[in-house]
Design a protein that fits this description.
single chain; alpha+beta; 6-stranded mixed β-sheet; 27 strands; rod-shaped
Length: 422
Amino acid sequence: GPAGVAGPSVVDTNTFFIGSDQDANEAGSSLQLGTDSSAIMTILESGDVGIGTIPDTPLSILGNGATKQVGITQNQVGGGSTMEFTTEDLDGDQATRLLFTGGVDSQNTQFFRGARGSEVETMRIDTAGDVGIGTTSPTGKLSVKAPPSSGVTDPNGGLRLEEDDNTTAWNLFYDTQNDNLVFRHSAESTDAMVIKQSNGLVGIGTSIPNTRLDLNGAARLRDTDLYFRGPNGGSNVDVGHGIGYYGIVTGLSKPFAGVDVDGPVVYGYSGGALGTRFNGSENIALRWTGGGVTVYGSFVNNSDRNAKEDVRDVENSEILDRLLTLPVSSWKYKDSVGRRHVGPMAQDFHAAFDALLDLKSDDKTIAPLDEAGVAFASIQALNDKLTNEIEAKNRKIESLKEANESLSERLERLEKLVLGNQ
């Protein structure tokens, strides 16, 4: 026989052989078919069959990767051909069946489970390549249809994405009672997200959304903005109205108008407002534009004694003296629409009062409370000054009055003497 092939063999003119071999790696002998000294198929004593390889399963096939590995062709022309694979137990009861049907123009691949005759088709791949799970008529690349008992009573009737421990999973299913698409975690009894079929409303953390997006819980915007308008006459989003975090912190340089805000900024294209809406009635509490802020009502500062500490007395007269030297001008803001104002400059106010009153202010702003406090102290100092001056004048008047009365008495006595000597 051929070299390396033991036992009886049959060799034709093309050196094809059929023989047996005692492989050192296999228990018992094997039957081999091959050409020259290379085995094409091996049948072990156990019955395992290998094509291109020594089998380690009932059927093992090893190809070279350059051509198709397994080909099965029916001897039939045109449509109507059928091929199936089944799995059965030792009693001959069918467990699963894989069925290929059709011809050149129409093919289906069908997967069944259950006993023959009462089997249920679980998945189908049709001629177009569309896949149907739970349906024999897929209408898209993947169509999934749960049984009638699924939905609100059986969240596992939809798609299930399991974790490695096989005990927890995410479920995506159709709520047949409310016609909603539902996302739910198997460890929770409430819905994580709901999309209503009737109007497209989306609920996150709630199963009864009342707006286009209804959130039940906290939401977070990282370092991006939330815009309030859509495309404005084009494909680009209108970014002139929104809210976002602005600041200069580790890993982020995002100032607003050149200022390190380190907090949220609400902005509009030409302005914005804070307001109230109750029973259809709308009211603006505060409105801002590029030139200023308008308060619709009273602006109230917290001045509660219990909210204050490090209370110090001030010298009203010194405050008045500095106020009298503070320049006061008429002016308007650069971006305002012609409206003028009257008052001091922050730099002058800072120079006059910051060190004296330990305000720890900057030279770009003036706090309304500080302006009012300086005015109050100056009024009190002016009142004290006027009171002192009036009291001094009153004392002088009283002294002059007493002197006048004394002169009147002396004049009266003098008149009596003169008249008595006549």
